[in-house]
Amino acid sequence: MSKSNNNDKIEKLDNQHDKIILIVEDDPLNALTIIKFLDKTYPVEHAATPKEVIKKCKNKKYNLVLMDINLKAEMDGIELMKYLKENIYNYEDVPFITQSAYAMDKEKKKFMESGFSDFISKPYTKNALLEIVAKNLSLKN
């Protein structure tokens, strides 16, 4: 597939500019990269700590959460995702995509069994991220 055809495909998949994405990432450089990958297509917000994520989710409904697994905090990504789904009104059906460098099949299985909607392995390309986000948002329409 040529580069322009692939970009056309991404634009068609991502024609959902009203969908707000929360990026949960504690590494500032990774967060900036993800924001740059997504912000031309989707409105995005960022939170670096579980406390910040919980506060944001209590005050706003996000359409998708892109969650880092290794948060250097009191909760990891799995614990935080479960907390949000169980304790924040209207988050039980929000797609949560985990992003992790842990890409072995047993880790992927663990993430999916814990309640994540999808998984993307770090490092990833802009197109790979846009495709997985679009796929998960379209499942909720």
What does this structure look like?
- It is globular and about 35 Å long.
- With 141 residues, it is an alpha/beta fold.
- It has one domain: Response regulator (Rossmann fold, 3-Layer(aba) Sandwich).
- The protein contains 6 helices and 5 strands; from the N terminus they run αβαβαβαβαβα.
- The chain has a 5-stranded parallel β-sheet with strand order 2-1-3-4-5, sandwiched between helices.
- The two termini are 28 Å apart.
- Helix 1 packs parallel to helix 6.
- Strand 4, helix 5 and strand 5 form a beta-alpha-beta unit.
> In which range does the helix fraction lie?
40-55%
Estimate the global geometry from the Cα principal axes: globular
Biggest sheet, spatial arrangement of strands: 2-1-3-4-5
CATH class descriptor: Alpha Beta
The total number of structural domains is 1
Radius of gyration: 14 Å
DSSP helical segment count: 6
Q: For the record, what is the CATH homologous superfamily label?
A: Response regulator
Q: In total, how many beta strands?
A: 5
| Low-confidence runs of at least 5 consecutive residues | 9-15
Structural class: alpha/beta
* Percentage beta strand: 15-25%
Going by CATH, the architecture would be 3-Layer(aba) Sandwich
Summarize the biggest pleated sheet: 5 strands, parallel
- Determine the CATH topology: Rossmann fold
Integer average pLDDT: 87
Order of helices and strands: HEHEHEHEHEH
Our measurement of the CA-to-CA distance between the termini, rounded to an integer number of angstroms, reads 28 Å
